[in-house]
Amino acid sequence: MDRRRRAHAARVRRLGRAANRFDSDGEILRKALVRAHHPGDPRGRRQARGLNVGAQIAYEGGRLARESDFLRSNNVPDINPGASVGLHVEWDRKLGPVPVTLLARGRHFTDSDRGAQADLRLTAIVFGGGAITAAVFVQGTWADSKSNQSFYDMAGSGPLYASGGLLWGVDLSREWIVVGNLEARRLQGDAARSPLAERRSNHYANASLAYRF
Questions:
Q1: Cα gap 186→152, rounded to integer Å
Q2: Topology (CATH level 3) of domain 26-211
């Protein structure tokens, strides 16, 4: 292995899970794509036969009444952005030729009044040709009573929302990638019945530029 390939392999090993030095750029992009839309900084990850367990720190968005006429007209108080800490379990397999990832995460907001949430997401890579990767996903999220109370003024705990959509990534170089998603989300349980929920369903799209160390 020449010097250039050894240097590239060293960069690959620093990405999230322990990828070995013979991973292709396409494989690295697929791994980055799955994690890019499940935010958090993984710490202390352990890996065994496709199963990864770790802890994470994540940024959590808030709610600003000035961003919505509905919230402003109903005098709904702001919720400042914050952070959460939690644990996750990630299981990677192949169903025939299709790589799939099952990711479960539990997290508690550092602001104790915002409670805790848990997610379960299944992702399947449906296209991985060269520099372009695409995946589909479905996800369920649950909230405890404090979380529902702080965001939706509902005291019950249980399902919060169900979502699904498309993830995509484009490998611009060995270091730079663009990742994005298209997502449909529908509130469930007490959150769907909340007077603070302007609508039960919504759609989202975003794109991000990322650098691989």
A1: 14
A2: Porin (2.40.160)
